[in-house]
Write a structure and sequence with these properties.
Layout: H1 4-7, E1 24-32, E2 39-48, E3 53-57, H2 64-71, E4 79-84, E5 87-88, H3 94-98, E6 101-104, H4 116-121, H5 151-161, E7 166-170, H6 178-190, E8 194-198, H7 202-208, E9 211-216, E10 219-224, H8 226-229, H9 232-239
Parallel strand pairs: 3-8, 3-9, 6-7, 7-8
Antiparallel strand pairs: 1-2, 1-4, 4-5, 9-10
Length: 245
């Protein structure tokens, strides 16, 4: 973050070495709660070009986290498909998917049983072979030190250690002070990977995202550039209030 290379010295993870972003194609993806079969997320379709940042916005309960869970293979879609570079993420092994997709979630353990070095080293797990042996030299000295030890920053570093082509961020600025929020936003803008992030702050989404997906009650009500989606009418309808730009 300011940057991770400066505060957390992540070995082998400079911008020049990070893998380029992937194409993301979501076609008719939906999800229903297993027991009730009630639709939580209605069929959604969109395409994202390599290296773009997609912001998913909407009121609480709109389906933002559910969509993210589909993208990082926590939930299998009830219908439709999710493809990264034309490969359906549910038709490859979990290890292969983890080599393509990394996620940083809102809720993290409050008590770390691992050191920062050990936590970030977990990001290399999909790239290990056999009984834990490394597939290359990049596992040596992944982290040399940490500034403050903030859990969120460690989780971002761990995700980057996976060398993902698609990075999923669920409310990445939650619980961060203004300085660290700005650092996360700079990170989002600068990383050469495809990013999908849920955000509550519409101004933040407009500032850092190439595309935004506006959800309401599990349905997509807008997709496109922020200046096209964030109209007074659309925001007012989705958030059930009177909005003024």
């Amino acid at each position: 973050m300011k940057d991770i290379a400066e505060d957390m010295s992540v070995s082998g993870s400079s911008d020049a070495e990070l893998t380029c972003g992937a194409c993301l194609s979501v076609k008719g993806a939906s999800w229903c709660a297993p027991r009730s079969r009630k639709p939580v997320l209605h069929p959604i379709s969109f395409d994202l070009s390599p290296g773009q940042v997609l912001g998913i916005v909407g009121p609480n309960g709109a389906g933002k986290s559910t969509l993210l869970r589909l993208l990082y293979r926590y939930h299998r879609p009830t219908s439709g498909s999710l493809k990264i570079d034309d490969n359906d993420i549910w038709k490859v092994s979990a290890r292969d998917a983890a080599r393509k997709v990394a996620a940083v979630l809102q809720e993290q353990p409050t008590d770390f049983a691992l050191t920062v070095r050990e936590s970030v080293a977990l990001g290399r797990t999909p790239h290990r072979t056999g009984c834990g042996g490394a597939s290359g030299q990049r596992d040596a000295g992944i982290i040399a030190g940490a500034s403050g030890g903030e859990r969120q920053r460690v989780m971002v570093a761990r995700a980057l250690a996976q060398e993902p082509q698609l990075l999923i961020l669920d409310e990445p600025t939650n619980h961060l002070d203004i300085r660290h929020q700005l650092e996360v936003l700079k990170l989002i803008r600068d990383l050469p990977v495809t990013i999908v992030t849920s955000l509550h702050d519409l101004n933040m989404a407009a500032d850092v995202c190439d595309q935004v997906l506006l959800l309401d009650d599990g349905k997509a009500v807008g997709f496109g550039a922020p200046q096209d989606v964030f109209s007074e009418i659309a925001i007012s309808k989705a958030f059930h209030l009177t909005a003024r730009l």
